[in-house]
């Protein structure tokens, strides 16, 4: 898509074609699933395909309609660029290398995690790069298998005492149970606290391991087989020690595949549609819009599994994340004027991030379990 040297007016039909193609791909996966077993209760892989299709549409719009991305001219390619715009064959090769095999290549180096946190300019040798990603691939696969074993052994049984609408909130119930023994709300038990802690791990770790394995496999193929420049394959995730706020968790530590497409469209809406000029307000609105787009994407993914599940808990949770980040920014701004950064402040930050997942994940996971049990 990005290799098409078309006029601005011609880009929009091609974007429509890319949207139809992504939708057609999802329908083909759904048809294949139902050919295998029409009674499948969960279409997890189809859900992933919907997410990928949603992001493909956003990236297609960004490349074709927003930034008018195109291959570099021949003189740039001759000077060391990644392709040439002289022939259709070279344009196709450029698109494959830049878009398919380097989906984050368009991002600035400042927005990508460095190879070495202590030396931002460090780039490993090609052999060391391949060895490292082979080890990451092996460890990620083993870690995911081990997690599945533990998850199957520990995961709470689907009985009413362990989950349900009455147990989505915990702070209010804890206060009521401590102040009155006659409260109609279920009491908070240690087992419930453990279930919530496991939900926080269950949400983050499998995705982390899966993406690490997929990214390392792609890196080994692109660098080891296709000869891609390994310096452009920066780490997928940042340093987990940087995740001492929710903003840094999502913006520094977590994988950045979503970042370019989602932030571009959020900024487009905030600046050119809503016409917000104040920088602080603009930053807050862009953050909310990014998580609103993520909410829409994950709601579509849930709907792909069938009409049984209500999408509102998914939308509510992702908007809750965006709102929590805004509140967090205000609190951090006030604390910087009162407290100097110290080791204990970072510890408080880590506890806060984990507490947010511990407190909020049942608001999305418990309703999902309820609808899957129907």
TrEMBL record:
Recorded topology in the membrane: Multi-pass membrane protein
InterPro entries assigned to the protein according to its UniProt record, in alphabetical order: Wax_synthase_dom
CC per GO annotation: membrane
Places the protein is found: Membrane
Pfam families assigned to the protein according to its UniProt record, in alphabetical order: MBOAT_2
Coiled coil regions, renumbered to chain: none
Keywords linked to the UniProt accession: Membrane, Transmembrane, Transmembrane helix
Transmembrane parts of this sequence: 12-33, 45-61, 284-305, 317-335, 342-359
Wax synthase domain ranges (all copies): 233-312
Domain of life: Eukaryota
Transmembrane helix recorded as keyword: yes
Protein name: Wax synthase domain-containing protein
């Amino acid at each position: 898509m990005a290799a098409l040297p078309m006029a601005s007016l011609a880009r929009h039909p091609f974007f429509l074609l890319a949207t139809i193609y992504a939708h057609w791909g999802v329908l083909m996966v759904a048809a294949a699933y139902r050919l295998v077993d029409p009674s499948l209760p969960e279409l997890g892989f189809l859900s992933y395909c919907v997410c990928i299709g949603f992001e493909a549409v956003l990236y297609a719009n960004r490349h074709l309609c927003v930034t008018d991305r195109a291959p570099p001219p021949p003189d740039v390619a001759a000077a060391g660029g990644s392709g040439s715009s002289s022939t259709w064959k070279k344009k196709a090769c450029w698109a494959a290398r830049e878009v398919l095999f380097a989906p984050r290549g368009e991002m600035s180096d400042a927005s990508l995690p460095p190879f070495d946190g202590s030396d931002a300019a460090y780039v490993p040798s090609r052999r060391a790069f391949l060895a490292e990603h082979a080890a990451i691939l092996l460890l990620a696969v083993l870690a995911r298998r081990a997690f599945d074993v533990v998850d199957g052994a520990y995961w709470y049984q689907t009985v009413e005492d362990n989950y349900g609408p009455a147990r989505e909130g915990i702070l209010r119930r804890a206060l009521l149970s401590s102040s009155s023994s006659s409260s109609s709300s279920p009491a908070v038990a240690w087992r419930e606290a453990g279930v919530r802690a496991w939900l926080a791990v269950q949400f983050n770790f499998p995705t982390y391991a899966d993406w690490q394995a997929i990214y390392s496999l792609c890196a080994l193929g692109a660098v080891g087989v296709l000869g891609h420049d390994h310096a452009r394959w920066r780490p997928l995730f940042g340093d987990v020690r940087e995740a001492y706020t929710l903003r840094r968790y999502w913006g520094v530590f977590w994988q950045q595949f979503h970042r370019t497409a989602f932030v571009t469209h959020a900024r487009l809406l905030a600046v050119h549609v809503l016409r917000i000029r104040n920088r602080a307000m603009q930053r807050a609105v862009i953050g909310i819009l990014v998580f609103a787009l993520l909410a829409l994407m994950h709601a579509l993914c849930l709907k792909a599994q069938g009409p049984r599940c209500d999408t509102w808990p998914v939308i509510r949770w992702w908007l809750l994340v965006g709102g929590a980040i805004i509140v967090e920014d205000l609190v951090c701004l006030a604390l910087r004027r009162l407290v100097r950064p110290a080791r204990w402040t970072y510890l408080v930050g880590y506890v806060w991030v984990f507490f947010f997942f511990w407190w909020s994940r049942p608001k999305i996971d418990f309703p999902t379990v309820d609808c899957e049990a129907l």
